[in-house]
Amino acid sequence: MTALQPLLRLKLARRGRAEPGYLHAVAQRFGRYSEPAPADGWLWVHAVSLGEVRAAALWVPRLQAARPDIRVLWTHGTATGRAAAQPLVRQQDAQAWLPWDAPGAVRRFVRHWRPRLGVLMETEVWPTLAQHCRAAGVPLWLVNARLNERSWQRAMRLRCLSRPAYGALAGVLAQTPDDARRLHALGTPAPQVVGNVKFDVPWHPDPWAAAQRWRLAWRAASDRPVLLLASSREGEEAAWIAAWRRQRATWPHPAPLWLVVPRHPQRFDEVHALLCAAGLRVLRRSALPAWSEGPAWPPEAWHADVLLGDSLGEMSAYYALADVALLGGSFAPLGGQNLIEAAASGCPIVLGPHTFNFAQAAAAALEAGAARRAADLDDALRLAQAWCQDDAALRAARAGAERLLQQHGGAADRTVSAVLQAWDDAAAAPAAPERA
């Protein structure tokens, strides 16, 4: 890991050309800081990217409300995650990059910040980091933890690395019993099963209501349904274009307006070029005013085939705008994206065959009637068409989404209770001797 550090610098330089955020404070990636830390005794929360930040945002503010004296150090691995967390960073908090998992970088990071307790969100367990934290007396917890069967099998094949890493954790809050079983088999302390905090996604009436006004204005002027390809990953847009070409003639007139929202912002221009090359008429979200300023559909919208969602932080508005959504990441063997935000917006969703990253949430959504399973994108288009032609089925799916959230909520409060107990236990423990 130490020898690979020059390659990491090259990677960051390349990523920085597309996303300048990767060029910010590069020295922190190697555990080097220009100024001393303002204090010690941090609650350190590592949320690597956008999904983990959104999950942490569901419980960290609740913890801060209960204990305002606790200072939070936020760390991340992606520019998207760092940007998404900035509104959560209070004046007394701090934000930094998680260092590269090399001994020197990790040692400098721990010595600089001197956290009292570390919390890793969902899956981010690094061997050097975990073992050095244990040696330095920093309890490290894995929160909202998940480990699908495929990842578990890979970890078991590399158990010479994975078992010491997972065994160095001080505690685990798992999403499901299956996650707990797999994590325990890798050597973690007996995990507590508290559920998935993402089911506690808060209701935001203002953005949702604003997007609904745009939707009502659209339907008042056009009979076209609005369908969403949500959080699509590389390769899925091309597969969707091919499936839509095969089926477009079978859809009733008028054809739907498609919302295509790529998962990663660095691909916005690439996907726009792909859609235009396919002969589709494309309107970009960035060409529209804010939802709160509308509804103000431009004249070209009525003839557009696709509205490209080239914005960040508006996924709930896209779901509110759509009649039915297709879940990105589930039509390629990538494990799917988080579908709970769709349920919170009352949007029925069609799942592809690959939802192993969110297996429990997918199963619960199917059982509640908030989702349907498709074998591939062609099948997904047929299911979406059937839903759009059946108002009663759409109403039932929206009611199922509401039941889904009611049945599986509460994990955020359980997480807060467990983390606060771990914080108090760490405060009462004798300080560990500093290691060289």
From TrEMBL:
Site (Transition state stabilizer): 122, 198
GO cellular component: plasma membrane; ribosome
Matching Gene3D superfamilies: 3-Deoxy-D-manno-octulosonic-acid transferase, N-terminal domain, Glycogen Phosphorylase B
Main location: membrane
EC number: 2.4.99.12
Reactions this protein catalyses: lipid IVA (E. coli) + CMP-3-deoxy-beta-D-manno-octulosonate = alpha-Kdo-(2->6)-lipid IVA (E. coli) + CMP + H(+)
Subcellular location: Cell membrane
Key word RNA-binding present: no
Keywords of the record: Cell membrane, Glycosyltransferase, Lipopolysaccharide biosynthesis, Membrane, Transferase
Pfam hit, one: Glycos_transf_N
Group of enzyme by EC: transferase
Location of the active site: 52 (proton acceptor)
Entry's Gene Ontology BP terms: lipid A biosynthetic process; lipopolysaccharide core region biosynthetic process; translation
Domain 3-deoxy-D-manno-octulosonic-acid transferase N-terminal stretches: 26-201
Pathway: Bacterial outer membrane biogenesis; LPS core biosynthesis
One function term, GO molecular function aspect: structural constituent of ribosome
PROSITE patterns, A to Z: RIBOSOMAL_S16
Function, as annotated: Involved in lipopolysaccharide (LPS) biosynthesis. Catalyzes the transfer of 3-deoxy-D-manno-octulosonate (Kdo) residue(s) from CMP-Kdo to lipid IV(A), the tetraacyldisaccharide-1,4'-bisphosphate precursor of lipid A.
PANTHER family: 3-DEOXY-D-MANNO-OCTULOSONIC ACID TRANSFERASE, MITOCHONDRIAL-RELATED, 3-DEOXY-MANNO-OCTULOSONATE CYTIDYLYLTRANSFERASE
UniProt record similarity statement: Belongs to the glycosyltransferase group 1 family.
UniProt-recorded name of the protein: 3-deoxy-D-manno-octulosonic acid transferase
